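re: ur question from earlier - yeah i can do the single chain one, its not a big deal. heres the input i used so u can compare w yours
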Amino acid sequence: MSVIDRPQGQQPTATYDSAFLRACRREPVPHTPVWFMRQAGRSLPEYLKVREGIPMLESCMRPELVTEITLQPVRRHRVDAAIYFSDIVVPLKAIGIDLDIKPGVGPVVEKPIRTRADLDRLRELTPDDVPYVTEAIGMLTRELGPTPLIGFAGAPFTLASYLVEGGPSRNHEHTKSMMYGDPQLWADLLDRLADITGAFLKVQIEAGASAVQLFDSWVGALAPADYRRSVLPASAKVFRAVEGYGVPRIHFGVGTGELLGLMGEAGADVVGVDWRVPLDEAARRVGPGRALQGNLDPAVLFAPTGVVEQKAQEVLDAAAGLEGHVFNLGHGVLPSMDPDALTRLVEYVHERSAR
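and the output i got, formated as tokens:
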């Protein structure tokens, strides 16, 4: 039984009875809650305006800017939750890893981690390393009121892939070479990253985040047996680190249809589903006792409104028998997406799912 099923007497917060948190707890909701991964970002002209000339990592370290960017989609789309604006490599940068986010490329690590000696560069993360996170979340929770704020972090496998490859990778050659060729070094690397990730999520929760999401963007590159043996222990360690806070824990990866049951097994209260698996089938794979999040194909938003509504209704229909459902895209908002299409989608889901 999840800790969020038995609140153990904690005082309700302003967000406790929100539709989003109720759905995460698999409780009745007034309507299906909606939020979008990457809802705060390049699809919004107001985002492009405030970010103009400011590098990505610097943007993540300015509390006032983080607050403004996080609030923009809540104001515009009336989504049911905000997602903290940051990047998965922020905690790595905070502990001294030499990396940058290159426009059009993504995170690039100056000196990849390939040997046991390289592990010494991965020290523990403390709240003093990320004071801007604590400050920004304090500002956000005051502004958001009853709207929940979702904190997030990159999962150990995805962080390890960036560190070992030195940047984004299509085939993860160096990553899998270490995982298969030196399983003890791989396990030690993921264990350290689990500690760093758990500490980063704790900072966000203690500052006021109402839920957290663990992104495992690249883990769909693995077979189930490799996930169970080489990834699940570290992901489970992250979820255990924040279990006692009683906030919902969401787990999401791309191309993870064959891993959905294992991702729930790692300790998630809510399992995110991409667009490749219908939600009713995803529920069968995940098993009882967990809510699901998803899972409209982001590319559908480029179709005419009637088509978007038809496909959204298919998602709602597939979710009709679920214990709990949070409507989302099957991955993130695309940069060229029309923001008005997202606003209309939120309105449609709210209206069609009203109880």
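The mean pLDDT is 95. not sure if urs matches, ping me
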